[in-house]
Task: inverse folding
């Protein structure tokens, strides 16, 4: 039985066709994975389904009834629930209140708190979504917050659940728990659309895979009849070669942190008693679940954060007056986690963005006056050398795709041949082709003797690239392990915060 | 109704927006003219004639535009860095106060030295006045919209206090006004017999200077970067707070030069009605100019033309000159709407 049918959905944004005649059917009790690179049109399609956007052409049908376009209320009423990538919970309210929010009149005398609590308890128990109804959302872990989001949809009697990149913020263990929940839901007759670009997860959970590429359906496969390689090829439209990783030629330590702690900032996790050294010619991978102190570690290397105690030396020098400028002068290249909010100034041009870290040098300015000609030449150089697809140096960086923006940031960071490279989530949200490119560049830098600190939530990425792996959890670092020394399971336990007797110092 | 982001428009389309905003303003104002019982075509004809119909009218318009160029530049510079300076009115008065303090005989110097000195100190006064809110903003996160706006009222009362007290003209028959400037402290007229004074030239030069700063210097680059994305600017190693403070100094100084120019060029003394809201109109001017310093000149002349033309029109057509205030306020709203439309597509369903 078909519960959901999208018929030739087309959506244009100006000259860009985000969705080109996409059709999709979802049967009762089925998990369909929507697989595609970033910018392939997955999110746009789901926004149309959910009524956030209005399609230019095509219709959405749920349970045999056509949904009026552009009406999220109608989608909710038809039993469609969505769990967004970025949670939409009110931090200062309880789980119960969040779930009831928008469903029940919160402060009306008729809001039966106890009945709601019972219903939530039952849903939690039935589907393994353990979370206390009266906890404040601000006190929950990321995994628990996601459970609240799913409960919210189930509370509204959703029969179709859309999950947008649900595993991006989860530990391997939490991912397993999520998959168990999803299987229970499917057994109850719910249907699920699972949006992802992680192939192994798609293989693990879905019955059917629909691959989107450049706004079109590139292919549809039964999961049982396909494999990761075939899906990857469909995603990018070509076969992929992952770069061979040569053995590391480890040199001297270029950056040494000893017992470093950073000050607490708001709700963020600070570093506590971190000892780490980065060696020339080596990639050090920091594995961990998002929000365990990665931001503080990256901030420290970027110069945005200063050590509160402990010592940090960069090529033998102490961090006196540590700042972003000092970090740049010490030869640290920074690839920030959030390229839109931190890495680039979206409304400024490519040219203005590539010089942002070096505009004060004599190459780009003299006596307080900019040398825009030099900036333009430099931008053209980066565009050429880093294979950035863009209309030219004057194009606003906002118009670039994620991959091209990242190549530009990579060019800006790596062009001065830095000795230390901080790469924080350098491939998050990128398509497979761009990921391979970024990896290649990082390995290239390693080969010429740079020390690379790779912070990533993608364990596969760490396992592929890192010569040494440390795990960050609760602001503390585990002891390092060489490539292949710890199993994925051991790393996963460390990520979940279980200390490891054998490796403890 | 919903808004969807759309790609950046071309330059030609971008230039169309202020034109469309002005056209919409005229249409809306026409309705009010109809309500007032007059013919919109003849009324706007009279406004145009009053603003630019003769050499005299044109010179009046340019005279009126002079302080608007200064306040418009002050707002444009600050808004570029997303420093929301709503206090150009107060900074203008700060400049005016320093102008009278130095220009009424305290410094017996020749004009060639005295005038630049007055201008510099006037600008410093305005700069210092905006520095306060800017420091509070970068230090403690105090919203500068509130502080700069409220300082306008503080400043008006302060001027009132001065005019009733230390600055009061003893020969002023009890009116709250300052002494007249000495002859050396007056900006010369551009054409004898007309009110247009050298302050207008200073305004044009300031606009060009600001344009050069914004386009060609590292400071202008930094200010734009901070305005667009302070987090990315900080990450890139820009001293964001220091840039905001520098922006405040420039913005406050420009507004204060408007006060200097009005007193030294036009009025000759300080009164409580020195500015009929030049500081606030400066916001309209800056928005119409889309924060472009050279565009500020055009926008200031346009806004001044509405005021001057409406004055002339009301004498003949009987429609109150307040229509000018309505038009300027409407122009701000239509322009803000137009700017939003450059970025978003409106979908009706």
Result:
């Amino acid at each position: 039985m078909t519960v959901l049918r999208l018929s030739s959905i087309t959506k244009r944004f100006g000259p860009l066709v985000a969705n080109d005649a996409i059709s999709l059917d979802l049967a009762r009790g089925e998990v369909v994975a929507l697989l595609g690179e970033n910018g392939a049109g997955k999110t746009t399609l789901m926004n149309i389904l959910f009524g956030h956007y209005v399609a230019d052409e095509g219709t959405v049908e749920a349970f045999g009834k056509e949904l009026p376009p552009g009406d999220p209320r109608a989608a909710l009423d038809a039993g469609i629930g969505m769990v967004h990538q970025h949670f939409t919970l009110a931090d200062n309210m309880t789980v119960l209140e969040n779930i009831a929010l928008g469903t029940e009149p919160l402060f009306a005398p008729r809001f039966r708190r106890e009945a709601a609590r019972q219903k939530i308890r039952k849903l939690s128990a039935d589907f393994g979504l353990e979370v206390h109804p009266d906890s404040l959302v601000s006190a929950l872990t990321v995994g628990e917050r996601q459970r609240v989001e799913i409960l919210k949809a189930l509370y509204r009697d959703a029969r179709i659940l859309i999950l947008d990149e649900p595993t991006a913020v989860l530990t391997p263990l939490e991912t397993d728990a999520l998959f168990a929940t999803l299987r229970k839901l499917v057994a109850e007759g719910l249907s699920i659309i699972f949006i992802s670009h992680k192939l192994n997860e798609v293989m693990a959970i879905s019955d059917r895979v629909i691959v989107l590429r450049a706004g079109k359906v590139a292919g549809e496969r039964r999961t049982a009849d396909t494999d990761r390689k075939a899906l990857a090829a469909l995603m990018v439209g070509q076969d992929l070669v992952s770069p061979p990783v040569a053995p590391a030629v480890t040199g001297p330590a270029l950056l040494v942190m000893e017992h470093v702690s950073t000050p607490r900032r708001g709700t963020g996790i600070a570093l506590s008693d971190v000892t780490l050294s980065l060696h020339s010619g080596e990639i050090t991978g920091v594995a961990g679940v998002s929000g365990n102190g990665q931001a503080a570690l990256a901030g420290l290397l970027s110069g945005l954060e200063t050590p509160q105690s402990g010592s940090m030396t960069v090529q033998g020098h102490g961090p006196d007056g540590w700042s972003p400028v000092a970090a740049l002068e010490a030869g640290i290249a920074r690839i920030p986690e959030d390229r839109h909010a931190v890495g680039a100034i979206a409304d400024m041009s490519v040219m203005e963005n590539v010089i942002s870290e070096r505009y004060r040098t004599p190459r780009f300015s003299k006596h307080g006056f900019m040398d825009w000609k030099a900036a333009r030449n430099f931008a053209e150089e980066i565009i050429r050398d880093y294979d950035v697809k863009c209309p030219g140096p004057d194009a606003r960086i906002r118009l670039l795709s994620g991959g091209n923006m990242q190549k530009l940031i990579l060019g800006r960071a790596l062009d001065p041949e830095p000795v230390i490279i901080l790469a924080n989530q350098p491939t998050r949200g990128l398509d497979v082709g761009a990921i391979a490119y970024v990896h290649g560049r990082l390995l290239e830098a390693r080969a010429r003797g740079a020390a690379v600190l790779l912070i990533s939530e993608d364990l596969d990425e760490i396992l592929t690239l890192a010569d040494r792996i440390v795990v960050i959890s609760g602001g503390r670092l585990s002891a390092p392990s060489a490539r292949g020394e710890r199993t994925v399971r051991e790393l996963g336990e460390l990520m979940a915060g279980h200390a490891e007797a054998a490796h403890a110092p | 109704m919903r808004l969807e982001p759309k790609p950046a428009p071309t330059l030609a389309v971008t230039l169309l927006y202020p034109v469309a905003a002005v056209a919409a303003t005229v249409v809306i104002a026409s309705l009010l003219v109809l309500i007032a019982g007059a013919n919109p075509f003849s009324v706007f004809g009279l406004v145009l004639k009053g603003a630019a119909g003769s050499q005299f009218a044109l010179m009046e318009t340019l005279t009126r535009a002079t302080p608007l160029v200064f306040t418009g530049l002050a707002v444009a510079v600050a808004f570029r860095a997303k420093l929301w300076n709503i206090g150009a009115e107060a900074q203008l008065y700060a400049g005016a106060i320093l102008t009278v303090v130095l220009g009424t005989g305290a410094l017996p110097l020749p004009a060639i030295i005295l005038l630049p000195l007055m201008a510099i100190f006037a600008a410093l006064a305005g700069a210092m006045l905006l520095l306060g809110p800017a420091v509070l903003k970068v230090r403690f996160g105090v919203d500068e919209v509130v502080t700069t706006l409220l300082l306008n009222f503080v400043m008006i009362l302060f001027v009132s206090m001065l005019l009733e007290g230390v600055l009061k003209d003893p020969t002023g028959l009890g009116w709250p006004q300052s002494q007249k400037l000495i002859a050396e402290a007056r900006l010369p007229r551009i054409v004898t017999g007309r009110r247009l004074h050298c302050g207008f030239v200073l305004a044009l030069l300031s606009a060009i200077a600001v344009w050069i700063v914004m386009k060609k210097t590292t400071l202008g680059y930094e200010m734009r970067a901070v305005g667009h994305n302070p987090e990315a600017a900080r990450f890139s190693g820009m001293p964001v707070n220091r840039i905001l403070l520098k922006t405040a100094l420039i913005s406050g100084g420009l507004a204060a030069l408007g006060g200097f120019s009005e007193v030294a060029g036009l009025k000759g003394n300080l009164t409580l009605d020195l500015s009929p809201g030049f500081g606030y109109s400066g916001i309209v001017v800056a928005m119409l100019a889309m924060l472009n310093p050279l565009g500020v000149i055009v926008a200031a002349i346009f806004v001044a033309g509405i005021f001057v033309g409406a004055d002339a029109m009301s004498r003949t057509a009987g429609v109150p000159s307040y229509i000018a205030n309505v038009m300027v306020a409407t122009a701000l709203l239509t322009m803000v709407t137009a700017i939003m439309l450059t970025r978003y597509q409106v979908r009706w369903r």
